[in-house]
Design a protein that fits this description.
The protein has 9 helices and 11 strands. Strand 2 (147-155) and strand 3 form a beta hairpin. The N and C termini lie close together (6 Å). The protein has 359 residues and is α+β, with helices and mostly antiparallel strands. Helix 1 runs antiparallel to helix 2 and helix 2 (30-69) packs antiparallel against helix 3. The strands form 2 sheets. An 8-stranded mixed beta sheet has the order 2-3-1-5-4-9-10-11, sandwiched between helices.
Length: 359
């Protein structure tokens, strides 16, 4: 695919938005201004990547031409070979970014995200691994400059979590974390195992784009809201007041609880946010199910019963089963170094979408 016409088209659109945002009346409509600002930021990066891509392509052609004219064992030829290797890697990376920008953006990619981790098979060991996953995602968020806010948790006896729910806000949170939805399997020797036997446990991760009020309508009469005292850590202010909020959405049967804030009103607002996001996810899943036959191979389907990844501690191995990716850097991954896993997933997703569009 010739990228030049595409980049020229985006450059023209970028100039149009830049001119529109410079008008005195640009922010009279805040919602429209916000939409234009987001598109401006996306196109600014896309145009910059396009310019860098064409420069790399030109430098690559010059070095390949130089290699044809120089003796193979000359110093210039060796330098050209090294430069070609570097430029080819840059060309591939920038090309992927451009293709990713050419595809219609997923509106949810820029949304804040709610992550829910639940212990599955494996008892206490599963609860302990839930805590490990929570730590892994919070470390990853910190490294990317995102903000993490706890919404609710249910601690286990040994310091793990039966369930933990938290919100991550920042740039492109859902865009990168949406591939984490599914069943995560851990294989290791539990601290409580005296015989040194390897146990297999599972945890379920759900990654939900934060829904807006316009996405899902929630009628007050469909809600059963109760308040109670929070339990667990948090100090006297949390534990001795009726600050925890539980909401039952009667039409769907969904139950949401939020207890991590001192204020009952804040917990109610947070619980409604989680409920809205769960209902939005269900709505999107129902729509996607209509096209399931066309989407069988797509990465990041978000099916919670899909075993997506195995963390094998004895072998120092992380395996993502969707793209058959195996890495031997488990300690780094558990410390939040997730880009070596998420990057290939994003690339594979891009290839699938380009193939579907025949680009």
């Amino acid at each position: 695919m010739d990228l030049k016409p595409q980049i020229e088209k985006f450059s023209r659109r970028f100039a149009e938005i830049e001119a529109a945002l410079s008008q005195p009346t640009a922010f009279d409509n805040p919602q429209r201004a916000q939409e234009l600002s987001k598109e401006y930021a996306r196109l600014k990066q896309l145009v910059a990547d396009g310019q860098a891509f064409f420069k790399v392509a030109a430098d690559l052609a010059d070095n390949r031409a130089l290699l044809q004219t120089e003796p193979a064992d000359s110093e210039l030829a060796q330098m050209a070979k090294e430069e070609i290797t570097r430029l080819e890697a840059d060309e591939k990376r920038l090309g992927q970014e451009l293709y990713r920008g050419i595809l219609p953006p997923d509106p949810a990619d820029s949304r804040n995200t709610i992550v829910e981790i639940r212990a599955g098979a494996g008892g206490q060991e599963s609860a302990l691994f839930s805590a490990d996953l929570y730590r892994m995602y919070t470390r990853y968020a910190e490294a990317r400059g995102w903000k993490v806010e706890d919404l609710d948790s249910s601690p286990s006896d040994l310091g793990g979590f039966k369930e933990v729910v938290f919100e991550i806000t920042g740039t492109d949170v859902y865009k990168r974390l949406k591939y984490e939805s599914g069943v995560h399997r851990v294989q290791r020797v539990p601290a409580t195992e005296a015989q040194g036997r390897i146990h297999t446990s599972t945890c379920t991760v759900a990654v939900l784009p934060e829904a807006e009020e316009v996405d899902v309508e929630i009628k007050p009469e469909d809600l059963d809201i109760t308040v109670c005292r929070a339990s667990g850590p948090g100090g006297q202010g949390v534990n001795t007041t009726d600050s925890a909020v539980q909401i039952i959405h009667k039409p769907s049967g969904l139950i949401v609880r939020c207890a991590d804030q001192r204020s009952q009103q804040k917990n109610k607002a947070r619980a409604l946010t989680v409920l809205r996001s769960r209902l939005f996810e269900r709505k999107v899943a129902e729509e996607n199910a209509k096209y399931a036959a066309q989407r069988k191979a797509q990465v990041g389907t978000g099916e919670r019963n899909e075993r997506i990844r195995t963390y094998n501690f004895p072998q120092n191995r992380v395996t993502d089963h969707r793209i058959e990716l195996t890495l031997y850097n488990l300690p780094f991954v558990m410390e939040g170094d997730l880009d070596p896993v998420i990057g290939p997933l994003m690339s594979n997703d891009l290839e699938e979408k380009l193939a579907a569009l025949k680009l």
